[in-house]
Every structure is written in structure tokens, then in C-alpha cells.
Predict the structure of Diaminopimelate decarboxylase.
Amino acid sequence: STARRGRRCGQLKLGGVRATELVERHGSPLYVVDEEEARNRACTIREALQREAERIGTEASVYYAGKAFLCVEVARWMAEEGMSLDVASGGELAVALAAGVDPARIGFHGNNKSVAEIERAVAAGVGTIVLDSEIEIERVAEAARAAGVVQRVRLRVNSGVHASTHDFLATSHEDQKFGQPLAEAPRIVRAIAAHDALDFVGLHCHIGSQIFATDGFRESARRLLGVYRELAEIRGGAIPELNLGGGFGIAYTSAQADDAPAIETIARELADIVAETCDALGVPIPKLAFEPGRSVIGQAGVTLYTVGTTKAVALAGSDAGGDPADLGAGERLYVSVDGGMSDNARPALYGADYQVRIANRASDAEPALVRVVGKHCEAGDIVVQRDLLPGDVAPGDVLAVAATGAYCWSLSSNYNYVPRPPVVAVREGSSRVIVRGETEDELLAKSVV
Ligand code: LLP
């Protein structure tokens, strides 16, 4: 990760800038994004997917899923690296447009887009709108008619493939809010085709997120292509595209480093299954589309915190004694930092694991079992569940938590009236703010008397 690569003499460097210097200049806590890393990952992922698509005689569009982390600057980077952009709200659309992203390369998602959002998207000329329910057909058609355009639309379906981190199991009825069951696709596509203002370009399916096993993607592709013929007949011609969503998993800790499949592997396996399935069905290979978010930006982000207090707590229950990581100490050092679940909700929401390092100095102290916690009034306010830090970790130390680029700023909150930290981009030894932090005054100003 960025954090490990940049380590020099105990002083962590990010994008060539010392962590201590970043905190002195921009404050703590601080979200740091390594611009080169984000751009490189965007480029690598796009190229891998496009190369494999070309190998089987088609093309691929790669949409950066802005929900992972979006601001005007990052939208610009992504566009410059050849990515299209997936937006999931009017707000994300506004950011994309402000960044000058070509509207034709924007895909608009959401299970409950407002009529106003649909109208804005159509008026802006977004490339595709993903229909999530039958009700939306009429709404998008109406907006397109009013604007005098033909709107390209995809239909989001549930492939019935339920993917979780390490395995997947097939269910015929997915009890969740997104998309329509695949079996209903023909009926719904017929309803779409009845509108001159709509152009159905293909199915969309996103099987889940933080997925390590490639079988889920392959199975989903196979099932979606299974209805290709039927849909092509309804459309009266080839189905131009197949959008397989995002969800490629990343390593958050070194223990996960071997679990995440390389994008090259995913791309090759997906291209193979698409080629084989189309061949077996005797149908042309559609263009492919993907929507990675986390795998693009996750590992380009690091959060810096400053330690405020520490306290040793006796290990209880299953953690007592039997834990190889407790080093026989029988206690856990709670290290409180100046942020927490307001800047990273993922441990509280998903039990997500992260790793932590001291960023401001080297230490020869014996490692101690630590839990890094935030400053919020909630016991679940955990930043790092379990890791080892030098036992002399102390107030004033700067801690770096790696792989916080995705779904941290974007899921952040003002719990306890804690202002959001700024986001700075680092590159070639310099840093600049790309999202301003909030001030207490700004938060206070929201209270109406
Ligand atoms: N496309 C669609 C339709 C999606 O719903 C998502 C994620 C993506 C693409 C991008 O998935 P990615 O490549 O980033 O896994 N807050 C959770 C993740 C929620 C993902 C929601 N949809 C987390 O922090 O893990």
C-alpha cells in the first residue's frame, strides 16, 4: 500500500510528503489521497478490462463509481484517465458536470431517482440512465419526450447471484431493493421498447461489493446473456451492451493481500465466459461495461489521526489469554484518536478491518495489542479493531490508517457536531486541498433560532 511504500526512517511519506508535515499544514484528522496511485489504478483497471474485451472482439467502457469517493478534482482525474463516470444522485451528477465530464460518458443510477433528478440528467445529456423499476420507465420517457431526445437506458436486474466476500450462492428471489428479477426482464424490456423516446441498450447487474471470488461475476454474466436472444427479438436487433457493475474487492489488511484477485484475472475470466456464452448461444458479443469504485480509489487513500489518550484495558471473554496477538499481556491498549466513526463509518457499519501504523517516528518498543478508537459517544466507534503498535504509542503520535480512499469521506457524518476533515491530494512532494474541511462555525450556523 501507499503507506508501506513511503516509509523512511520512521517517518511515513505519502506522495513524497511527510505525514507530520501534512498534519502541520492541513490539520488532523486528515484524509490524504495519493493522486498518482488513484490515476494509476484507474488506468490499470480500465486497460485490463478493455484489453480483454478487445481480445474477444468487442469493447469495454469502464465507469468509475463516484459513490466510492467523488469531488470535482477526482472526477477530473478519472476523466483524464479515460474512465466514464457512474453517478447515483443529482448531487454526484452535479459534481461530474462541474468537473467538465462529458455527459455522454455518464451513467445515472439509483433505485429512487426523483423526477427532478431524471429531468436534470436527461437535460444534461447523460449517456445512459439505469432503470431500476418499472415505475421509472414512464418517468424517464416523459422527461425524454419533453426534452425532445431519445434517452439511452439500461435495465438493472437481479441475476440471482448473491456474492459475498468469499463465496456466492444462487437464490431465485433476492430480498433486496435493487433491480428487477431477471425473469421479468423480457416483459419490462417490451414496455421500454414501446416508448419511442427510450432506447434500450442492455442489462445491468451489480452482484455486490468487496468481492474476492470471480465465480460470482462469471455466473452473473452467463445468466444475463442467457436472455440475450429473447431480448434481442423484443428490441428488434442486437443488444448493444452488457453492464456487469463493479464490486472488485481490495485488501484492507496485509492478511487479505493474497485474497483479492488481480484485475487482469477478473478481466480475463469475464471475457472468456462472455465469449464462450455468446458462442454457445450463437449471438454477437455485446460491448461490455463495468463500474469499479473501491478498487480504483480505496488503496489510494490514507487517513491521518493524532493520538489524544491511551488506556490499557484487561482483555475479556474470548480475547482473554487465547489470543496469539495479545502477546501474553492479557490486556489491550485503547488508543483514542481525534476522529472516528464520523470520518470512517465502515468498522461500525460492516465490522470492516483496517491496519494502523505510527507515522511520525520509528520505535523499538515491544509491540502491543491495540484497538484504535475515535472520539465519539458510542462504544462501536472503532477505527481499527485489532492491530499491533509499538507499546510506547503516546499522545501526540500521528497514526496512519491505510486503504481509506473508498466509502470513508463519502459515508462521513457530523455525529457529535464533529466537522468533516479536509481531503488533500499528494503528488510529487506537494499537497493541496481538494475538498475543504468543515469548521465548527459552519456546523453551528445550521442551527436556526
Ligand atoms: N455499481 C453499482 C450499481 C453499485 O451499487 C456499486 C456500489 C458500484 C458500482 C461500485 O462498487 P465497488 O466497485 O465500489 O465495490 N459502502 C459500502 C459499499 C457499498 C457499495 C454500493 N454500491 C462499503 O463501504 O463497503
Summary: Confidence is low (pLDDT under 50) at residues 1-8, 165-172.
